[in-house]
Prior knowledge:
Layout: H1 3-6, E1 20-26, H2 41-53, E2 58-62, H3 75-91, E3 96-99, H4 103-111, E4 116-119, H5 129-136, E5 140-143, H6 161-178, E6 186-189, H7 198-206, H8 208-212, E7 219-220, H9 226-233, H10 246-258, E8 263-266, H11 269-295
Parallel strand pairs: 1-2, 1-8, 2-3, 3-4, 4-5, 5-6, 7-8
Helix pairs in contact: 2-3, 3-4, 4-5, 7-9, 10-11
Amino acid sequence: xxxxxxxxxxxxxxxxxxxxxxxxxxxxxxxxxxxxxxxxxxxxxxxxxxxxxxxxxxxxxxxxxxxxxxxxxxxxxxxxxxxxxxxxxxxxxxxxxxxxxxxxxxxxxxxxxxxxxxxxxxxxxxxxxxxxxxxxxxxxxxxxxxxxxxxxxxxxxxxxxxxxxxxxxxxxxxxxxxxxxxxxxxxxxxxxxxxxxxxxxxxxxxxxxxxxxxxxxxxxxxxxxxxxxxxxxxxxxxxxxxxxxxxxxxxxxxxxxxxxxxxxxxxxxxxxxxxxxxxxxxxxxxxxxxxxxxxx
Length: 296
Ligand code: PMM
């Protein structure tokens, strides 16, 4: 399978001829990397539109922080945060993914115009999630997730992180298929930083081919995460704050796109949009050169 064809397409979403860029709109006061900045509906919608202007192909709207130890927001509050933003962006023709672990939020967001459900628990946090997504015929992200984290990196113990993550994603994909979600609507995601330390994240990024071998489009969400802070800090240093990790994020975006990722999820879109376009141009140049070689 070539890297290009390995990118795949997701039924129910537009098809992009390169790695897609998913811009993040966290409508939360406490998300670790941009918490609080886009907390009211008007500024969240404006921010989503700005991300599209900068090159985002789709926008991921979430109303609950998933960072380790974060307290859960209640359902009404999550609905209050998410649905008006989905409605506002849908009215502008934006392709929207909804980042939620609640079936009720997914259902209402799909009705309000969202096209993709991004549940970091892959249906494990809410038993009603898979039936709701299946009934709507919506695409679904199956991220690697080992449960809610209370204080630190518990459950992040692996003998072979790549094999275990791939096997656990495969098991979730099987559960999701059994629940009635169609195979061409499933996206897989290594869940960087979820029950994983920096070394685990780096090893997973080094082996994206193993995720591709699952046969589903791959989403990579490295943006501003702890492992980038670790890399940039060096062995002794203090990690730079989340907002100073965007160049490092764009580097991961380029590598993920080159490895055949279907999409990358990022907070700062412009650098990543440039990165995936450069990768696309290089891939096309390689194809052109191969074509010319063959014609000789
Ligand atoms: N990470 C976060 C939130 N949503 N969704 C997917 N599919 N994959 C991820 O790795 C992921 C996610 C946490 O990051 P944020 O608080 O910066 O949005």
